[in-house]
Specification:
Elements: H1 10-15, H2 35-47, E1 54-61, E2 64-71, E3 87-88, H3 93-106, H4 116-119, H5 132-136, H6 149-157, H7 189-203, H8 207-219, E4 240-241, E5 249-250, E6 267-268, H9 270-281, H10 288-294, E7 298-299, E8 310-313, E9 318-322, E10 325-334, E11 337-343, E12 350-355, H11 361-383
Antiparallel strand pairs: 1-2, 1-12, 3-6, 4-5, 7-8, 8-9, 9-10, 10-11, 11-12
Helix pairs in contact: 2-11, 3-7, 3-8
Length: about 400
């Protein structure tokens, strides 16, 4: 870790908590979409001023996996990004908490219309009518704890502070709902904290155990974990702050994960993530009735940052309508990393696209637009030749 002083990095640390940005319309780069063209495009993206030091895409089809990578896994070395490198998956972790909750719905341990008042009566009465369904599609109206003054002040004072992950919603417990549940879409980190707490309440088991039993073990995600601290398992893709003219600064281990927990704390690899999203988006973790409920889309609902093409929100899953067809998935960004995972609706083709810098509309709108256009080209490569 090359952080000089945590206080000097307050702006970068706070960026991990920003979560409600509007989608951006990206232009489409030209075909062809063969491996050489994709390689040139990814190389160009990494080499641009302000670009991430490293990037990797894993595309899995019926014929096997293709890997396209550019830059390095660690600045100062010649080690290239690898599908087995660990990385922070940011808000794509919300798909994991969604997988846990929806599997419990399939098992009838939870119901989509269960409310916070019924399952978590210790939370404020003002929030009692919010349902699991509204948490999963970000129409709950819950205030975002990660934007609260108390949470941000604690993070500024000590980026390695160990938060009580079970009590993150306490930071906004004195606040009313932002709107009547079900009437608006607003992406919030609080939603998936509440989802995990509801899963725990329904089963009387820790979320970490549920995650292992329901997602990690059945799918063989042996390099996926939910740490509380700041250390990364080796080997890993180093994440960087590229916001200053000086050399990129390694921020891989600058903050602990206890403050994001079920909303963004998972560490995984491109290989594991590609396997996960194929099974998750393909509806293989639970039955058809739950899949049907999951795919009731809220038009205009975007993940953060917005994914390629036109975005719509389902239950812990997003629909990306690109010029080449539709994929389902999730995005995420955190200090040092930006992620996209996506798959065809049948799960037979899947993609992970990872870069080692945080790219958002607020930090660099043009860079985000370029990245979304590039992501769309990779989606088109994934879908090329498929019946859509």
């Amino acid at each position: 870790m090359s952080l000089r002083r945590p206080r000097l990095r307050a702006a970068s640390v706070l960026a991990v908590c920003l979560a409600a940005l509007a989608p951006t319309t990206a232009g489409a780069a030209a075909d062809p979409l063969d491996d050489q063209s994709l390689q040139r495009q990814l190389d160009d993206f990494v080499r641009r001023s302000g670009g991430p030091p490293g990037a990797i895409a894993v595309l899995r089809t019926e014929k096997g996996a293709r890997v396209v990578r550019a830059g390095v896994a660690e600045v100062g070395t010649d080690r290239r990004p690898s599908p087995g490198d660990h990385m922070r998956i940011a808000s794509t972790a919300k798909a994991f908490s969604g997988a846990v909750a929806l599997t419990l719905v399939d098992r009838r341990a939870l119901h989509l219309d269960d409310t916070l008042g019924e399952r978590l009566p210790q939370l404020p009465d003002a929030w009692a009518s919010v349902t699991l369904r509204q948490l999963l599609n970000h129409t709950s109206g819950l205030p975002d704890y990660s934007r609260s003054d108390g949470f941000l002040d604690q993070l500024r004072a000590d980026p390695l502070h160990h938060f009580d992950s079970q009590r993150l919603l306490d930071y906004v417990a004195d606040q009313p709902l932002l709107f009547k549940p079900g009437t608006q879409y607003r992406y919030s980190n609080s939603d998936n904290i509440a989802v995990a707490l509801m899963a725990q309440a329904a089963t009387h088991r820790p979320y970490e155990e549920l995650l292992r039993e329901i997602v990690q073990e059945p799918l063989g995600l042996h390099s996926t974990s939910l740490p509380q601290g700041n250390r990364m398992p080796k080997p890993y893709l180093h994440g960087y702050d590229v916001s200053r003219p000086a050399a990129p600064e390694d921020v891989s281990e600058v903050i602990g994960m206890s403050g994001v927990w079920a909303s963004g704390g998972i560490v995984s690899t491109p290989a594991d993530m590609t396997r996960f999203i194929g099974n998750y988006a393909g509806g293989r973790l639970y039955g058809g009735p739950v899949v049907e409920q999951q795919r009731r889309w809220v038009e205009g609902g975007a993940s953060e940052p917005a994914g390629p093409g036109r975005n719509s929100a389902g239950l812990a899953l997003f629909r990306y309508e690109t010029r080449c067809g539709v994929v389902l998935g999730h995005t995420g960004n955190t200090l040092g990393y930006t992620q996209l995972i996506a798959a065809t609706p049948d799960g037979r083709r899947s993609l992970t696209f990872s870069v080692t810098a945080q790219i958002t509309r607020s930090s660099d709108a043009e860079q985000l637009q370029r990245m979304r256009a590039l992501q769309e080209n990779f989606v088109c490569a994934l879908l090329h030749g498929a019946n859509q």
